[in-house]
User: What shape does this take?
Amino acid sequence: MKTRLLIFAIIPVLFVLIGCNSNKTKNTEKEIQVTWGGPKNISMLPIIAEKKGFFKEEGLNIETKYLQTGKIAMDALLSKDLDFAVMVETNVAFIEYQKGADIEVICSIEEKYDDAIVARKDKGINEPKDLEGKTVGILIGTTSHVFADRFVNYYNLDASKINFINLAPPAIQAGLLTGQIDAGSVWQPFRYNVEKQLGEDVIQFNAKDIYKAYGIISIRNQFGEEHPETVKKFLAALIKAENYVKTNQAKSIKILAKELAMQEEVLSAIWSEYILNVKLDAELLTLIKEEGEWIHSSQKGFENKQVPSYENVLNPTFLSELKKENAEELSK
Assistant: This one.
């Protein structure tokens, strides 16, 4: 893996420049076939880019694969079922412990605060302390896992008194609805689905100061080396999507609510849980390193492994070049 300069403070890439040319197709040649995939709740910008035709404007013929979790997206990236994977920083923190898993993060596209502990009141849960003695569903190796751990620490709960069980988000949702589990650490739209059916019988614990997760775009190193122009076209489409969302919030919510299977008014109400922008900065690297240390100190089977340096996991090259190229184009 090549060495990179860590100047991630760096690329706050809000390319209005690209948005100004949003009606122009840069590639008049045959469209390039690429596949992207990931969970819908962290794929808002790719969804907008596809629905508004921004990928097509950049000469990309897109195949989309919606997946339940970032972990599944990461596995699909490694198996070459995806060219671009939407995942979270936790997935990167885990995968870097695996030798030979050469992936790189080319940007973050979303900062999200939609993780929460969703609990049933009829199980006697009305405040965080009530989780002790209860069964809580989490998905290990995801933001569900990180949020639950930070939640326990934030409220000084005794983790040994909580029965954590490993479940996928649909299973957490089903377990809450049937009462087989008392609570679950999960994100949207699963939170919404549970509340919609249980109504006042459910309580949600969600606080921005507990945890902020990142939705990120990752590629295989080899793919980036062999197809740099394709990567930049993909990023250019995402930046167009970002600009569209900023100037067309109501229309964006309408598009996304349909894809997320949520009511528009509900997505509007929780819109502040998401910050959609294309960038790559030092804060993301810091968080990945923190989670790498957390994995080493708290996760069974990792205690004897060396914590990765993570120094080469972020690659700002594509965003830097894209910014330079568009600046040069406008200066002509």
Observations:
- Residues 208 and 325 are 37 Å apart (CA to CA).
- The domain at 8-113+213-331 is CATH 3.40.190.10 (D-Maltodextrin-Binding Protein; domain 2).
